[in-house]
Amino acid sequence: MIKRGALRKICISTLALVILGIICVFPEAYTPNKIEESISYTEAEKSVIYLLDKNNYVARTNVIKKNSETTELIKEIISYLTIDSDTQDYIPGGFNSLIPKDTKILSMDLKDGLLKINFSKEFLNILLEHENAMIESIVFSLTEIDDINQIMIFVENENLTELPNSKKKIPLILDRSFGINKIYDIKSIKETCKVTSYYLAKDENNDYYYVPVTTVTNNDKEKVEIIIEQLKTAPIYQTNLISFLQANAELLDYEILENKISLSFNNYLFDDFNDKTILEEVKYAISYSISDTYGIDSVSYLVENEKIDELILP
Fold first, then answer.
1. pLDDT tens digits for 243-252?
2. Structural domain boundaries, residue 200
3. Is residue 18 part of a domain?
4. Rounded distance, CA 7 to CA 235, Å?
């Protein structure tokens, strides 16, 4: 006869085995206070800045944006543009800053879209071959900020009215009309036309980035016509720059409004005739070019009078 104590142990063991079996078969039924886990990712905000690329072009690239308040954002961008600053590790590979090492902002004043920025004397230590590119980098980077349209540069409280080494005169008030990666193709200094067109180049990771080139010519056509002509026939002097706009693409018509432009093309604007798709690289190259040249942020794309797409730049 089994003793009462032993029988009790057998019952407990059997019950434990039964419970364990139920848990194994129906695990979710015995999971108390089940917590559902989910992971979400937030993409970091980016700032657009202009740095020197491996081909010595001042090129458009993106860096992490840590500040939203305008004054702090200005300081952050200048830090990215300064050689050996604390933010150099965050600059994309293949790009280089231009403001001389140890340059500091002594003071700033922003009013009605005009930024007055005062640098320390180290600002003047720029190399001769980079002095014009440095000004372009500063002007184009800071005017990407919504609140800034124009810039006045000071060094130790003195207006910078000429480049430090060549002594070439520069405007007292700078904006994007100053140009970038400038090419001069003129026969006369009278009746010149200045347009900025955006091409593409490849970085060390084989990714594309945009390179603006300002050309100064005696061309008397409307600027939008010049831009399209330049983008579909990449100039010989820019053999390492790319444009994806087909040579057969024709601008049939355009309408320029207050802050918007409509461009009507033939079918060769399409990357694929069947899908009626326009390459992103084509849309952005044209839109960036229009924005810099006209100050227009909205570009509508039509093909044979049918609206295909609209790109609104931030």
1. 999 999 999 9
2. 183-312
3. no
4. 97
Q: Is residue 22 part of a domain?
A: no
**Are 209 and 234 in a shared domain?**
yes
Write the CB contacts of 92 (distance below 8 Å, at least 6 apart in sequence). Answer: 61, 62, 63, 203
SS3 307: strand
pLDDT digits 0-9 by tens, 124-171: 999 999 999 999 999 999 999 999 999 999 999 999 999 999 999 999
User: Residue 304 region, left (φ>0) first, then alpha (ψ -120 to 50), else beta?
Assistant: left
Evaluated on CA atoms 267, 278, 51, 202, the torsion sign reads negative
Determine phi and psi for 3, rounding to 5 degrees.
Answer: -70, 155
**Number of domains, the chain:** 2
The b/e string for 268-290 (b: 16+ C-beta within 10 A; e otherwise) is ebbeeeeeeebeebbbbbbbbbb
